[in-house]
Amino acid sequence: MRRYGKHTDEDDIRSRPNRKGNRPRTHIRPKHEDAASGLVLTVDRGRLTCLVDDRIVLAMKARELGRKAAVVGDRVAIVGDLSGKKDTLARIVRIEERASVLRRTADDDDPYERVVVANADQLAVVTALADPEPRPRLIDRCLVAAYDGGLEPLLVLTKSDLAPPDKMLELYGDLDIPYVVTSRAELESGEAADRVLEQLDGRITAFVGHSGVGKTTLVNALVPEERRRTTGHVNAVTGRGRHTTTSALALPLSGAGGWVIDTPGVRSFGLAHVDPSRVIHAFPDLESGTEGCPRACSHDEPDCALDAWVAEGHADPARLYSLRRLLAARERTEGD
Question: Where would I find the beta strands (DSSP E) of the chain?
């Protein structure tokens, strides 16, 4: 039995209604070729504060990005209302390729890696010489993460008025890491900020360190117009400070032309995500000697070719010791 006549019209054909009342979904996504470029400054509960030209724009991640998340330092493509006016919200539709990534895991048994900062040129590892006592194992782990992620490390030693820096400088001297030593009096006078600024000129630098070392105090000295809440309190029992920075934040350096990214204080720095074979790239004087190493060499075993490489005078033995100390940091706890 024919339901329709010879000359049917679309209006005559019954269609099944869409129960959700929305448009049919499609796998074809817009290319957003007219999207504006932005820089993610901070992330707070799903809302991303971005710099677009000279405007601060609040945005959210577009659904088409799926689980891919943008972090501080990311270069992104943004569409929608880019006026930056109150109660406006734009959409991040694309995250550009990252030049570097600082990552960490909660601990060494956690397979889930967290991207802390993207596209930074440099990682400033801030540690106090006293109050709280320095934790070399945590410093080592930060250095491994920097080498693995493509960042150049910078060692910033604070509170030199409470303890001399000689021991720490000797411990890291063979790594050829640039360093700055500061005291509390120099922070107050501005002298410390001037010396640190020399290392930050024209670069994007992420600051990392455990709580109470004076990291945010130093950032406030570098960017006084954007002061963040700090603390001078260190727990007398644990010797550790309290977290005062709760989210990463990128701040512009008006004079030097670079950026500083203040990150929350860390109490652990897991390296479950790090491939040990990538750490050797930070030791060019040793890297050539690995050609004779057995497959999947840990560089700390009897058949490692680096021992003969150093014995032949191609590299300083202290450099090999430093490499192996950093690689071993993945297996050690972060206490002293």
Answer: 36-44, 47-52, 55-61, 75-80, 90-95, 101-105, 113-118, 122-128, 152-158, 179-181, 204-208, 249-252, 259-262
